[in-house]
Amino acid sequence: MKNNFFPFSDKRRAAFSCILILFFLIATSFTGFYLYAAETIQEDCETIDESEPVVEEAVDEDSINEDFVDDADKEESLIGESPDDEITIDDDEYDTAYYPTEDIPAIEFRGTLVFVIDDAGNSLYDLEPFLNFPGAITIAVLPGLPNSIESARRIREAGKEVFLHQPMESIGGRNPGPGAIYTGMEREEIREIINRNLDELWPVAGMNNHEGSRVSMDEEIMEIILEICQERGIVYLDSRTTALTTAPEVASRMEINIAQRDIFIDNEQNLQSFRHYINLGLERAERQGSAVMLGHTWSDKLGELLIELYSELIEQGYTFSTASQIINNIEP
Length: 332
Description:
nine-stranded parallel sheet, single chain, 9 strands
């Protein structure tokens, strides 16, 4: 019977059949490879789906510090690659190995410096450099002036110590300013004036005298002043505007601790003189343990000079304190 489907000779039909079989084998191979690849990809996708989703973590502002702690813990865990490799550090060994403190020379203490700056309340501009002083400082504010209350507020805000700079009668008859007390006043009038001045600037840590050479020589008035200090829980600093002051004697009799001025920095208005008197104060601090140095807000460049000298004096072994700390025997 004649084969109409393969109208070729037997040899040609055999060759054609081989070609078909070869094509079928190739197609089968490609199909198997495709199915294997598809199955592998599907398994990988299932593995990814089972893991935690990767999303951008929102930042909780309240937990920022906790995140820093966690990161520090992670960094410590990287010291050893496994628990067996973990490195432990002995605190004592760490301190001596990496920070040999015995090789660092200790700074020898040379004295405590107390800078008291008088006459605040006049100019807020003049006050500003002293507010920027990096160490402890006492600033005494005059009462009854346009900027008295604001000066006291700014001093406290800057973390400095506020004193009432109490105006008092001087020997020369010079007007000491608003809120002054005089030797001819009655006891109650003196008490009323001083308490009113304190209330204006309150809270304050202490009081010192503005002018006041005549009042300082009057034991009775000095006793009234120190009584008020006791009642208000504040200290007294004698500016020593006269060598004949009775404040130390009266304080001793009343068993009250007070301090006295050692050096006036700005008797002469130039930087060379400022430096000279500050050096005298440094010598006094070395001899007696501390020195109280008085200056004024209106002294040009004094605030800037104190700021400039601060680090140098610290490196030399001086410490800074306030007037109330010295009087109350509180270490700075």
